[in-house]
Input
Amino acid sequence: MDIQFSAEEQRFREECRDWLHANVPAEKRPMDAADAIAFDKAWQRRLFDAGWAGINWPTEYGGRGLSIVQQVIWLEEYAKAHAPWIGANFVGVNHGGPTLIINASEAQKEYHLPRILKGESIWCQGFSEPGAGSDLAGIKTRARIEGNELVINGSKIWTSFAHVADWQELVLRTEEGSQRHRGLSWVICDMHAPGIEIRPIRKISGQVEFAQVFYDDVRIPLDNVVGGLGNGWKVAMSTLSFERGTGFIADQVKQSQEISELLERARATGAIKDDRIAEQLMQMRAEVTALRAMTYRNISEVVRNGQPGPEASVIRLFTSELGQRLQRMALLLMGDDVLDFRYGDDNRVAEYLRGFAATIAGGTAQIQRDIIAERVLGLPKSR
Amino acid sequence: MDLTPNSEQEALLTATADWCRDNMPLEQARNRHPALWNQLAEMGWLGMTAPGMDLDHATEALVFAELGRHLAPVGMISSAVAARWSGHQGKTALALLDRDLTGGLLRVYDAPGATHALGLVGGLAALTALPSDLGGEPGLDLSAPLAHIDPAPPFTALGDPRAALHLQLLSAAFAVGVAEAARDMAAEYAKMREQFERPIGWFQALKHICADMAVRAAVARSQLLYAACSLDAGDADAAFHIASAKHLADQAAIDNGRANIQVHGGIGMTDEAYPHLCLKRAHLLTFVAPPERGVILGEAA
Output
């Protein structure tokens, strides 16, 4: 065991640092939704052109084909350079794309992967439904097969970027009368297809960042099924296991920036002289550094064995809850200024409020605890 | 960068776990055989990083977490530190002093058979000679024979400040072991004990207690391994990483120790059952080289 990076990795780190230093935009991501999407797309394109998109994606689809360790180095430097949040490209780059790499046909990969990396197509997710949240297998959105088309009816909810997305990773029931995990399919849905209606939903932070999506006889080619008809559960799980593996590294790196900033502020304002604040900051600084150690351990596991160990689910849970503790501390340090928060403000109060999603989206903290108890500790399955 | 054990370390860990199960089971922690110390010395565990042994702190930390999981004698920690940074081989007792040490009471663990004791004095690891007839009776930790010397005799500090980091690292490793022992004990009991006609581990209320134990143990173990590597690498931040590891390991050991008793219910309240042994050991370890807040916050001492 050692914590030293190789000479090649250190050169790569310098390469990342130099490019980011020269290219990170000075202006902030715009608040206006349309401007923000244009900003996200332009930034993604710039990353792609310079060879920084899809660092560990296969080269034949526009990636760099580098190691996962280099991917981590890039993300570390990315956060240190205060480079922009991935924004609307999140689902495509971190979710849809990796799922396609594992499960899709050659034609699907050839078409979609380069477009994702170039920021040309925006993706959204269609897993949760009004009646299927934690119980994802309770999906009711369905499709009947007519000729070489799927005809889709139903509704999805909590869909981020639905209003700007070109494509959706949509899990639905393609086998009539099927139950639970069986009879589901993972489909690439064209968000511009007739019969799709999007109703935006406002969050507790005031932002309109997600939506409910309705499907009324939406026709999608059968060729858009990924991983075969009826295999949707397996395909969806491969995405979720990716999330539990390396999908949250960016968040983890951001948290180490966050604790440094909080410490700086607590020193500047003198808040650190309050023992209760100092105690909490100490706790979080130790936890943030342990999270990095845990991430490195997980990455080492991937390098050694080709996949993350079962403890990857622990990282996912710990990251989300630690992030919320950091956001709570940021609020504490603001004092009574928090009371002046208004919808439209993009500040730490907004981050704190949006941050509640971390223990809800992509599997609640409670579901994560079930997974840890059952898969890491071997307790009996209760579902 | 690699934070997974290599095949040699894996083999060493398996051998250590097997030996502990056969010769030093947790269940006998309060009745250790007097010959145990000779066996521990023969296994080479009292001087893994001593000059001439050439093992690194990462390997040592892995092994000590395994030893700690079986509630090995706490004097192993002080013995390993003494072997690395002074000429004292074999058994060296563990000394605990008040932090501002003028006079005051000295507590000594695992004194029988040791000529010296090692502890922290003013932030440095230091040695003192022990009277030859010093015995020991169990205190809070029923698995650690404790003797008192009042007032404390004079100590001689070891020259290298890394000796104190080493002491903190190995006590963190022991605490990680305790946290994992409590986690596994709770999980096993939750699978076996039945109420409402099913294992109690079926219920989410119990599952989530156990999952939190797994999180705490995993967090502490990760930071322990990173900290050990940072000491090996001579990293400028080694003191910060080791203090963080110690803080999280102590917390995991105490919290898991407490949760383990809760999961065991009434049985957990009994002297006869084992959960209290883990909790009591965890409390003892919090007094061994406790981390300083300023070090974790990155403030100048």
